[in-house]
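Lab notebook page, bench 4
Experiment: in silico fold of construct C2
Operator: M.H.
Input chain length: 299 residues
Purpose: comparison with the prior construct
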Amino acid sequence: MTIRHLKILIAVCENGSITKAAEMLHIAQPAVSCTIAEIEKYYKVVLFDRINQRLVITDAGKNLLLKAREVIASFDDFENVARQGSKRPTIRIGSSLTIGKTIVPAYVQKIKEQYPEVKLSVMIHNTSVIERELEQGNLDFGFVEGQVLSSRIHAVPFGSDRLAAVCAADYAIPEKVALSELGSHNLLFREKGSASRELIDNIFSIHRLTVSPMMESVSNEAILAAAAAGLGIAILPEGLICSYLASDQLKKIEIDGVNFGREYYMISHKNKKFSPLQRQIYDLFRAVFSEKNDRYASA
């Protein structure tokens, strides 16, 4: 079994087609077919069901795909370390949107100051995407809010925050309401897959309530703007709404008997082997977070 075998396996799985995989890898189609057959024969496993001339990955194939991605990610790490003597080392960081706005800018600035030789690659997306990119070896580590779902991800808590319900200052609603009353209003939520939405959906589910938001967006700013315009009630992290509350564009609504608290996590793949430089930059994040919290508390 070689790296080439694994790369071909991953390409076929991701494309769902021998032909497309061959085109992507710039090799002949028979070579791809032969490689898949070799893997199946050697390990006595069926990677794909052939249904109506389509490749449908089996459960065994899915498990081997995850392992193949881990091996390729480790190989890529090896090559990156081996080449650091002649090239700038690259650190690949992922962050969910709230942390990406409130903490990551100061973190990136600190990295540039302390490690000017490092080339940074930063991805800001929702929590589920950051988890997936870590699983596939496309990121070195990340920072997210809320529950981490993947069993392949190592998560270390480093802080917490709360969500808050807000609306326009002149929006007609009492200062304190029951969770069940929110369903009668237009609700403005983050998209499915975000940590904020995961927490909100869980809380409504625990209270045996279902709601259909009037607006969903990947952008916290779009939701805040909609709430400030009086379009409905938004539920977003407190750290993002301070300026809106201070300028009286929004007012906070207390939800009776509901705790919208959640944890922040530093995450990495369980099989990730940090280089000394990666470990230093990973650990730097906690110092930046503590410094930012101290500044916030004294303000």
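Observations: The chain has three domains: 3-82, 90-158+264-298, 161-262. The longest strand covers residues 153-168.
Next step: discuss at group meeting.
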